[in-house]
Amino acid sequence: MTGDHDTRRGPFEPGAYPANPRYGEPRRRSGLNRFLGGSPVAVFVKLLFLSVLVGAVMAMFGLTPGLLFWQFYDLTRSLIDLGLDTFHDFGRWILAGAAVVVPIWLIARLLTVSRER
């Protein structure tokens, strides 16, 4: 019978490697491996490779981290200013509409109340 149908072995726990066929016991991952998503050396090599790749692309386009920061800052400020201008316009629309709607509603309510008596 194969190990897939063995009822003595429970399901794997989260964070455990598949069972070692030689010993049949699942190996636990350390907290550091779980946090990093792999062994520290492998993660370091991946990050080093990606850093060189991204740095080369940024150098091709003439970008620096400081320039990216200031462009992001300017974009955020312009979006905030745009949003506040929209709220300012929205507030004017509310006041203009309320100047017409509220008196008409008040007159309609007064006429309805006087008819009900």
UniProtKB/TrEMBL annotation:
InterPro entries: DUF6460 (IPR045594)
Keyword entries, A-Z: Membrane, Transmembrane, Transmembrane helix
Ranges for domain DUF6460: 80-112
Chain intervals for the UniProt region annotation (Disordered): 1-25
TM ranges: 43-70, 90-111
UniProt biased composition (Basic and acidic residues): 1-11
Domain of life: Bacteria
Protein name in UniProt: DUF6460 domain-containing protein
Taxonomic source organism: Methylorubrum rhodesianum
